[in-house]
User: What shape does this take?
Amino acid sequence: MKIYIVDDDISVIKMLEEIITDEVLGELIGSSLSSKKALEEIPILKPDIILLDLLMPEIDGTTLVESLKERDCHSKFIMISQVSSKKIIGEAYERGITFYISKPVNKKEVATVIRNVTDNIMIEQNLDKIKKVLNIDTQQASGMMRPEASPQDDLEKKIKVIFSRLGILGESGCEEMIKLCKFIKEGKISLTSNKLKDISNEISDNPKAMEQRIRRAINRGLSNIASLGIEDYLNEVFVKYSNTLFDFEQVRLEMEYLRGKKAYGGKINIKKFIDNLILLVDDM
Assistant: This one.
């Protein structure tokens, strides 16, 4: 991902540059201490992600976002500021920012948010590709009826919607979780009364590696949910999944970890996650 930084404090720019480099978060294609200069450079450089301050001396952050969008800028905006007013932050979201991070800058939080936004960009890009392919298929079909989707296909689509909301759709463990859910649904069994290892043996030649990939994917989802809660405690995705797919106390611990207030984050429960994932899908 191509990243551009706008902040009138050079120390903040240097700190963000260091985080982006150390965490391998993307390609830093430019930065500016001046919002006016940024307004000129960004349409030319076309970054995927823009990190910007709210309180800028020439053009404030929200006005800069509006001006860039008027120029057909499709970048994702991550606002970083010391402002704590919910009203002002709410207005920033209304004007088009994707995430809001409070200063002082926390390395773990910045890295998590950028990764989350990167995942969302990749999902959007993949969806655009799918739409184009479907459009071509529709034109080629010339009005022909498509076969009705099977229950298993429907299950997979619904699970992918949830994974997309969690920001983990691209994780390798997700495909294996889908296989696991299909197997459980077909056999009408539950992880509550069966060992994950026993079920994994039925669908994988290397169940231990499969469990590790699933655990990594769910842990990434926990981190993303905690990040959403930090930015907006009333976020729809956070409210819906923080106490269903995850244990809320563990989500709270992860939030404290991302804020730098705890030395360790929350823990995940694979059995609870999979069982509740299937329950959520059944309700969709």
Remarks:
- The beta strands are 2-6, 27-32, 49-52, 76-81, 99-102.
